[in-house]
């Protein structure tokens, strides 16, 4: 990791995101969804699971339950049959049914558009709320998962001891024109290039700007 006090300067940050944008102008989440509600459900289900695993489970699920009303009609036991392949599937099913009921009873079946209201829903933490705010509503929120936390610290883009520190660092430091897509670029970079055990530095777009001292040859 870059030392906690080591931060890239503004010209380096701008160059990094300029390169990411040139390579992938319009990055998308790898979770599959059909509307705002199915996005929220997919992100809730993705905790301690891979996007590939979640997509496999939700392909059949979203074909029959793509609204809070239809999810409630399916019921908790019905939902369990679709998500059984995922870790913590019983708790996740319970949370999805509970949040569906709240959306129907308090929000007319629609998703609220504030972080506070989203994080009040069962199973929805700050990261999940930020993904929904960003992907569904185009708000420049900065979700921080394990990949983004690692890349932000390792490179010097936005070092921080806790995810909330990295989130605030990204909000403060990423040039505004890149903020809508920055979390997608960082997550994809962490997933496929700047990997946890063995970063693939030789094919890294930003190798010459990164502060990570232990670059692989």
The end-to-end span amounts to: 16 Å
What name does CATH use for the topology of the largest domain? Endonuclease III, domain 1
The CATH class assignment of the largest domain is Mainly Alpha
Helix-strand pattern, N to C? HHHHHHHHHH
CATH superfamily of the largest domain: Hypothetical protein, domain 2
Our count of domains comes out at 2
Unreliable runs: none
CATH architecture of the largest domain: Orthogonal Bundle
What percent of residues adopt helix (DSSP H or I)? Answer: 55-70%
DSSP, total strands: 0
Name the quaternary structure.
single chain
Structural class: mainly alpha
- In DSSP terms, counting alpha (H) and pi (I) runs of 4 or more, how many helices? 10
Shape: elongated
Strand content: under 5%
List strands and helices in order, with pairings.
Blueprint (H helix, E strand, L loop, with lengths): L9 H14 L12 H10 L5 H14 L3 H16 L5 H19 L7 H5 L6 H10 L10 H10 L7 H11 L8 H11 L25
Tell me about this structure:
This protein is an all-alpha fold and 217 residues long. It has 2 domains: 10-27 and 141-203, Helix-hairpin-Helix base-excision DNA repair enzymes (C-terminal) (Endonuclease Iii, domain 2), CATH 1.10.1670.10; 36-135, Hypothetical protein, domain 2 (Endonuclease III, domain 1). Helix content is 55%, strand content 0%. The protein has 10 helices and no strands. It has helices spanning 10-23, 36-45, 51-64, 68-83, 89-107, 115-119, 126-135, 146-155, 163-173, 182-192. Helix 3 (51-64) crosses helix 4 and helix 8 (146-155) packs across helix 10 (182-192). The chain starts with 9 loop residues before the first helix and ends in a 25-residue tail after the last helix.
């Amino acid at each position: 990791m870059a030392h906690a006090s080591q931060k890239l300067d503004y010209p380096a940050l701008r160059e990094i995101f300029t390169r990411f944008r040139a390579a992938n102008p319009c990055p998308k989440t790898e979770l599959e969804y059909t509307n705002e509600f199915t996005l929220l459900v997919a992100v809730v289900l993705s905790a301690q699971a891979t996007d590939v695993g979640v997509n496999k489970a939700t392909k059949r699920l979203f074909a029959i339950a793509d609204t809070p009303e239809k999810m409630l009609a399916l019921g908790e036991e019905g939902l369990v049959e679709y998500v059984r392949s995922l870790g913590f599937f019983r708790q996740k099913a319970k949370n999805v049914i509970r949040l569906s009921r709240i959306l129907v009873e308090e929000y007319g079946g629609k998703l609220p558009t504030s972080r506070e209201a989203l994080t009040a829903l069962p199973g929805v933490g700050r990261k999940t709320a930020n993904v929904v705010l960003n992907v569904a509503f185009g708000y420049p929120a900065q979700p921080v998962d394990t990949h983004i936390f690692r890349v932000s610290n390792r490179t010097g883009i936005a070092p921080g001891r806790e995810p909330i520190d990295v989130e605030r660092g990204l909000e403060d430091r990423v040039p505004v024109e890149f903020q809508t897509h920055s979390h997608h670029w960082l997550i994809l970079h962490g997933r496929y290039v700047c990997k946890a055990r063995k970063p693939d530095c030789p094919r890294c777009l930003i190798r010459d700007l990164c502060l990570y001292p232990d670059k692989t040859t």
